[in-house]
Write a structure and sequence with these properties.
The protein is mainly alpha-helical and 89 residues long. Helix content is 70%, strand content 0%. It is built from 3 helices and no strands. The longest helix has 37 residues. The radius of gyration is 32 Å and the shape is rod-shaped.
């Protein structure tokens, strides 16, 4: 059975001296925190899209309902009695 050795300090120091590793870490930090499309902005965009989709679905349902009522009123004049009458006083 193979025993996993802990990472030695020398190996960690060598890793942090590697310029490619440092540039990669700097790039990742920049993209996560400082870029125009950082994680916080992406979360906000996602929340906004979610809210807009709910609004779209609501307005679609309202439009369908009004369209159905309009079609019913135009095809069936007996429904006109149920409409509220506006007084002119």
């Amino acid at each position: 059975m193979k025993i996993i050795q802990p990472v030695s300090m020398k190996r960690l120091i060598d890793l942090f001296k590697n310029k490619f590793f440092l540039v990669t870490i700097a790039f990742v930090v920049w993209m996560i925190f400082f870029d125009r499309n950082d994680l916080f902005s992406q979360y906000q965009y996602h929340q906004q899209v979610k809210k807009l989709r709910l609004e779209r679905d609501f307005y679609k349902a309202q439009t369908d309902q009004v369209t159905k009522e309009l079609k019913e009123l135009t095809t069936n004049p007996s429904k006109w009695k149920n409409l509220p009458v506006k007084s002119t006083s």
